[in-house]
Design a protein that fits this description.
With about 220 residues, this protein is an alpha/beta fold. It has one domain: Rossmann fold (3-Layer(aba) Sandwich). It is built from 6 helices and 7 strands, in the order αββαββαβαααββ. It has helices at about 1-40, 75-85, 120-130, 150-160, 160-165, 175-180, and strands spanning about 45, 65-70, 90-95, 105-115, 135-145, 185-195, 205-210. The chain has a 7-stranded mixed β-sheet with strand order 3-2-1-4-5-7-6. α1 (about 1-40) crosses α2 (about 75-85). The chain is globular. Residues about 215-220 have low confidence and may be disordered.
Length: about 220
């Protein structure tokens, strides 16, 4: 009962205010980081956990198609409005990252930006990303993570419950890079930095590329 009430009230507020809450961070450099990451996208593209659609205008015009998924009904409502105003053809699908309604090898590029911190089962999301990627396809990721500084990491653990409630299910202390490395995807590149103008417990940031399995060798 309390969970449903929390989702119905704070979920609606979180979806309505997300773009405003992130605006200073986006203007201070996060939007540029998103754009640089998505510049590597090609072919048939999927974004898992698209939220309000904050990445919508950052996808390269050269890609073949873009599909955006989002599980939360309040976020999806904002996403659908944004997609409806988009000058390009984009499809929005309400679906959890752990159970994507797409066939195997349906996409050449999958993107995750600030998603694995909130996903109930990030390992399952990565398995699904691997499944829907064509052989050799790329996962583009940008995530805030557990700090490598023991002092900051301790504060992330102490404030986890408070931040989880305030951030509508956001986990500030997940070792997301280790989860990606343990997935079926092969990490090709990862960079470390900070999310600008963000609270210290969600400031540590990683971004990079992971690759789906290479095509099988053709036998003569």
């Amino acid at each position: 009962m309390l969970r449903r009430l929390y989702q119905a009230t704070w979920g609606r507020i979180a979806a309505w205010g997300y773009d405003w809450f992130m605006s200073a961070t986006e203007k201070a450099g996060l939007t540029s980081r998103r754009r640089e990451l998505l510049a590597d996208a090609e072919g048939r593209c999927l974004e898992i956990g698209a939220g309000t659609g904050i990445n919508l205008d950052l996808w390269p015009e050269s890609v073949e198609s873009v599909v955006l998924t989002e599980p939360d009904p309040h976020m999806f409502g904002q996403l659908r409005k944004r997609v409806g105003r988009a000058p390009r053809s984009v499809r929005a699908v309400q679906a959890p990252g752990e159970q994507l309604p797409f066939d195997d090898e349906s996409f050449d590029t999958v993107a995750l930006t600030l998603v694995l911190c909130t996903a109930p089962n990030p390992a399952a999301v990565l398995r699904e990303a691997s499944r829907v990627l064509a052989p050799g396809g790329r996962l583009l990721f940008l995530e805030h993570v557990r700090s490598g500084d023991p002092g900051v990491a301790r504060w992330q653990d102490r404030l986890h419950g408070f931040w989880f409630a305030l951030g509508y299910g956001c986990n500030c202390n997940r070792n997301t890079l280790a989860t990606i490395e343990a997935s079926p995807l092969r990490v090709e590149r990862v960079d470390h930095g900070e999310m600008p103008k963000a609270p210290p417990i969600v400031r540590p940031l990683i971004w990079g590329v992971a690759r789906a399995g290479a095509p099988p060798t053709t036998r003569a």
